[in-house]
Give the backbone structure.
Amino acid sequence: MNKILLTTILYLVINQISVNAQLLYSPKREFRGVWIATVVNIDWPSKSTLTSTQQKEELIHILNKHQEQGLNAVFFQVRPAADAFYAKGTEPWSMWLTGTQGKAPEPFYDPLEFAIQECHKRGMELHAWFNPYRATFDSQFSKLHKNHITNLKPEWFITYAGKKMFNPGLPDVREYITQVIMNVVKNYDVDGIHFDDYFYPYAIKGQTIDDTDAYIAYHHGIKNIADWRRDNVDQLIKMVSDSIKHHKKYVKFGISPFGIWKNKKQDPEGSETNGGDSYYGLFADSRKWVKEGWVDYINPQIYWAFSTMAAPYNKLVDWWSNNAYGRHLYIGQGAYRLSDNKDIGWRNPTQMPSQIVYNRLNNRVQGSVYFSSKSLNTNLKGISDTLKSNYYQYQALPPPMLWLDSVSPSRPENLLAVQTNKSVLLSWKLPAKAKDGEGAYGFVVYRFEDNEPLDIDKAAAIKKVFYGAITSWEDQQVMKGKKYTYVVTALDRLKNESEHAIPVTVSIK
């Protein structure tokens, strides 16, 4: 066990957290995601003046880094402000893509389509990340395209703190946002749809939400405007959820709310915290969405340290794990906080590793999502090295969602292995359709050495994961004198795994 792992164990012990050392290592099933933010060019593209080729090269570099870090999912921001990083929709191209809202990339390409293809090659899911209510990021309304929805439907918007946001209380707004999202669901091979924490705006002193007229027109007997606002958000989330499942039942839907639902002092069922909250502060009843089964995963942003008095990391992880209602729980990890040397908790380089271990000690936590891509790829406090060398040293598959699909695919057939000059070339045939009529969506290649037991639950044996109808793979990491046994399994859209193919063994000469 190396120095980083030992230091992490010591840190957890000091904080009176019992440790099962086995959980420090990579499990086979774990969600490992990262947010790639496009708003104001946070993560990608680094500049809106990059050419199409430069943008593609930069995104490939980013994805390669995340693949090396052991990640298996990307939350790709496709609609930061009622605009688009994709072609098959009705909203104008984003200014953060080309410098001018409404201007298409030249030469033309579709960033979302490109990102999906590149993620799937690397065995990574792509979740299209939408900001449902944000319409502008600043007050420079004159720079908006003539066909931006704020110009076409000005009556749909509220101005708050100099920015425009959709009025969630208007039925036409909810219908419009749902249709925008469904354009992506219908036209792109996305694995999921993702919302972040922006619902009603974070409160700013002296500002008011001007939605009284909408409340009078559409209150439907709800006597409290705060309850009405929460109901407006609930209606959108249920509408989006129902629409997604109607068209593509395998597309996951998840939300990343503010980390605190309610504090215990506000509600006995709240968490042992004393911070801002989503329920009263943002009119977002985040626990209800899980309880009602409207989302497939909840991904609370717990961007605090163990030592944060108002919002201790461990207290919030424990609370959410007790309120996940059988849905997946992924913890939003504040990787950007690793640059914060003012906070004593984040000055400690073991803070993030300790959080990963703490998550693994709780069997109701299925993984992590990091904000954001740049924080990982600039290796703040060595986090990228730590993930690659320790916690994510082996690949992992996303955990299945059995409420959506519990039928495993059929196994691949006719697995063959041929030794070439410096490699082993594997090939197989696509499996027959499963009992539910679904074919294979991806494959996992396992390799075992000499007399090693053939155990596909062992993450270290995974050599390649990819999505698509690819039926061959070349193992270029072989050594003379070794004997390798290979098996291949099939995955369906929701990452249920088949039995393995009949093994093949090769002795390297």
Remarks:
- The radius of gyration is 24 Å.
- The chain is about 30% helix and 20% strand.
- The CA atoms of residues 349 and 381 lie 6 Å apart.
- The first strand starts at residue 31 and ends at 36.
